[in-house]
């Protein structure tokens, strides 16, 4: 009887984590390049009273055995790297990745982080940086007197400069890919970090070897679907309530046992 209390408690705790994940998805519905997470569950240990196939007589066996589970836990959160909606902004420094890949970003610590958020700006030196001032690893610097900046689908960056008949080349923006992008660790600020599970980054030209292309003047929105998250929220809430009812039922049964004379 006591086992049912602890088992139901694991179910309540797991559903709490599931709702935490759903709440974070909904909170980031307007975050550029955000990828939704999904909680994944696994059952816990089992107490085995009779092993399947155990002998029940001289020539008979138990077809199924007798096992009682001890609950559930959230074992991982899976980041879903599906494409978010592309929204046109008209800002020439806004970039959206259409397909696979990440922008590499240089951190002040010397590390490199990765992002799908292509909302770039110019710093005081004309370098392309993200909203936190971290420089794009491709090291693109826009001249102060540039009239316009053009970024091609393959990452080629050019600028129209007064006095120059032809556009001036500023370099090329490259993307990186990973063997297992779901293995990247979230670091906040729209940044992801490399781990042993993700594999090492492979840097390539946009459009090459399965990488996506760049769309100038556009941003990739979050891939969170509010309707789907609301359904998951309701499902998690109901699952939590059912587990709470199991606790209540077990408590009532214990009370009945305690009242026996």
Give the N-terminus to C-terminus distance in angstroms.
19 Å
Order of helices and strands: HEEEEEEEEEEEEEEEEEEEH
List low-pLDDT spans. Answer: none
**Count of helical regions:** 2
Give keywords.
three-stranded antiparallel beta sheet, alpha+beta, two-stranded antiparallel ribbon, elongated, 261 residues
SSE layout and pairings?
Layout: H1 2-27, E1 37-43, E2 46-50, E3 66-69, E4 72-79, E5 86-88, E6 95-98, E7 103-106, E8 112-115, E9 121-122, E10 128-129, E11 148-151, E12 156-160, E13 168-172, E14 175-177, E15 185-188, E16 191-193, E17 202-204, E18 213-216, E19 218-220, H2 226-258
3D architecture notes:
It is a single chain. This protein is an alpha+beta fold and 261 residues long. It folds into 2 domains: 2-42 and 73-80 and 224-258; 86-220, no CATH class. It contains 2 helices and 19 strands. The strands form 9 sheets. It has a 3-stranded antiparallel β-sheet with strand order 11-12-13, with no helix packed on it. A two-stranded antiparallel sheet has the order 1-4. It is elongated and about 100 Å long. The chain starts with a helix and ends with a helix.
């Amino acid at each position: 009887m006591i086992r049912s209390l602890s088992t139901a408690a694991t179910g309540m705790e797991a559903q709490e984590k599931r709702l935490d994940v759903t709440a974070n998805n909904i909170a980031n519905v307007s975050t550029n390049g955000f990828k939704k997470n999904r909680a994944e569950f696994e059952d816990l240990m089992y107490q085995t009273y009779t092993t399947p196939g155990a002998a029940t007589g001289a020539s008979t066996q138990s077809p199924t055995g007798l096992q009682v589970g001890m609950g559930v836990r959230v074992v991982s959160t899976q980041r879903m790297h599906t494409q978010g909606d592309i929204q046109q902004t008209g800002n020439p420094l806004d970039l959206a990745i259409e397909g696979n890949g990440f922008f590499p970003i240089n951190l002040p610590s010397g590390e490199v982080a990765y992002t799908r958020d292509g909302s770039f700006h110019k710093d005081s030196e004309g370098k392309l940086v993200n909203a936190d001032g971290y420089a794009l690893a491709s090291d693109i610097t826009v001249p102060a007197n540039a009239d316009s900046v053009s970024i091609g689908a393959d990452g080629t960056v050019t600028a129209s400069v007064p006095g120059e008949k032809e556009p001036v080349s500023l370099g090329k923006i490259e993307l990186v890919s990973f063997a297992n992008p779901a293995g990247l660790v979230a670091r906040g600020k729209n940044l992801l970090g490399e781990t042993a599970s993700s594999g090492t980054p492979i840097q390539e030209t946009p459009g090459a070897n399965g990488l996506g292309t760049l769309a100038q003047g556009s941003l990739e929105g979050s891939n969170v679907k509010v309707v789907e998250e609301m359904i998951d929220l309701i499902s998690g809430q109901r699952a939590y309530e059912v587990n709470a009812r199991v606790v209540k039922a077990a408590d009532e049964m214990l009370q009945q046992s305690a009242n026996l004379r």
